[in-house]
Design goal:
It contains eight helices and six strands; from the N terminus they run H-E-H-E-H-H-E-H-E-H-H-E-H-E. With 203 residues, it is an alpha/beta fold. The structure holds shikimate-3-phosphate.
């Protein structure tokens, strides 16, 4: 994947619901491309000295989102070509979404609710999932956020299959996306929609 990493001129940003595998896939993707990896929740934690979950609980949704918007903008402003995993709500913010679609290649990792519920059940670090039924909350968030996530340049459907397969699918889709831009004029289009580059990782 040397060629692909050489033709990248902006970061690859992974978006999607909690438990979709953004950090795990992002780290592996970065390794395959020989690029650095950074996680926006981790960057928030480094800046604030508290975990994203603690900040969310202590300051509430609005303040957390304001901080998250600034941190994600800073990560892109730094100009490094790298893989960035975002917290599940970051791309739902209209300003962040527009900025990312202008300045990054955005990849929606989309996994079925039962898989998200199972994965997020392994650790109790997400305030949004503490009350009530995890699967039901994820289902509601999925409905609320789908129209935002579907504006990502690339959608990768992932199932129970290995993360390695998801990484392969992302690499292929990014390659195809970059090819599609050749001759399409300067700069990335903003949000080519869910069907334009819809890939499935083998389940
Ligand atoms: C959130 C997702 C979390 C974290 C915060 C809020 C969300 O990140 O940013 O708890 O609103 O979906 P992950 O998607 O990495 O779990």
């Amino acid at each position: 994947m040397r060629k692909l990493s050489q033709s990248l001129d902006r970061p690859i940003v992974l978006v999607g619901l909690m438990g979709a595998g953004k950090s795990t896939v992002g780290r592996r993707l970065a390794r395959r491309l020989g690029l650095p990896f950074i996680d926006s929740d981790q960057a928030i934690e480094d800046a604030a000295g508290l975990s994203a979950g603690e900040l969310f609980e202590r300051f509430g949704d609005k303040d957390f989102r304001d901080g998250e918007r600034r941190v994600v903008a800073r990560l892109v402003d730094e100009g490094d070509i790298r893989v960035i995993a975002t917290g599940g709500g970051a791309y739902v913010d209209p300003a962040t979404r527009e900025m990312l679609n202008q300045r990054a290649i955005t990849v929606w990792l989309d996994a079925p609710i039962d898989i998200l519920a199972e994965r997020t059940g392994r650790r109790d670090t997400r305030p949004l999932l503490r009350d009530g039924n995890r699967a039901r909350t994820l289902e509601r968030l999925s409905k609320e956020r789908e129209s935002a996530y579907s504006q990502a340049h690339i959608r990768i459907r992932s199932g129970e299959g290995a993360h390695r397969d998801v990484v392969d699918s992302v690499l292929e889709a990014v390659d195809a996306y970059l090819d599609s831009l050749v001759g399409a004029g300067p700069g990335p289009s903003s949000g080519s929609g869910p069907d334009a580059n819809d890939r499935s990782a083998p389940a």
